Amino acid sequence: MNGATALILAGRRPGGDAFATRAGVSHKALIPICGVPMIARVVRALQESGRIARMVVAIEDADALHGCSELAEPLARGEVEIVPAGISPGATVRQVLERFSGPWPLVVTTADHALLRPEMIRVLLDQAPPDADVVVGTVAAETLHAAYPEVRRTLLRFRDGGIKGANLFLFPRTAAAGALMAFWQSAEQDRKTPWRLVARIGPMTALRFVLGWLPAGEVLQRLSQLTGAHVAFVRLPFAEAALDVDDEEDQALAEQILRRRS
Rounded to two decimals, what is the model's pTM? Predict the structure, then answer.
């Protein structure tokens, strides 16, 4: 699968971001990791994947990106486009999908994915089921904990093992994805409380989830029934795919990992 478009979510959540304020920047995307703004690292990983033909950054203040020296050349060459961000990540993806002209598929990630690597993008694209309307990149709990046992992340726990989202999504060219995005928007307020997300798909499903009886496949099937979109997971074999940067502790870990790579 070649020539995809990448959408990078770089907007602020309502109320601002205390982490960005403490770092002295307008957006979390501009916080440096080992001296390089997070969004510049994401752009570089997408470029180096060899699979991205177009990059779009969603942000409510375009001037913030124009002031980033690391993005000056990609912006000047037209390699990175800027579109307005919506009121939430889900709203942004939905409005981009509604107006999107390609090239398909659309890969979505976040600007705080400072540890994104080209091979993560390749695996997501190569392992996506051909009949899926929406593909969600995930990392198995055992993969994350084997590499970083000290790290604590919000997990979705299922009978067949826990998973952590990787802030990587793939939308092939299908109309059904819009219905799922409407569901995503309605669930965004509960993004840090997984049991509430599951509760949206029915009380019995929620009870089985709390008890650890629910297979991940059953949740995907239920989501597909509710939205009319075939939702699939791709398990990424990279622990770092589950490590976005939300605060100073995450920042320190990301810098430690990057120093080990170099």
Answer: 0.88
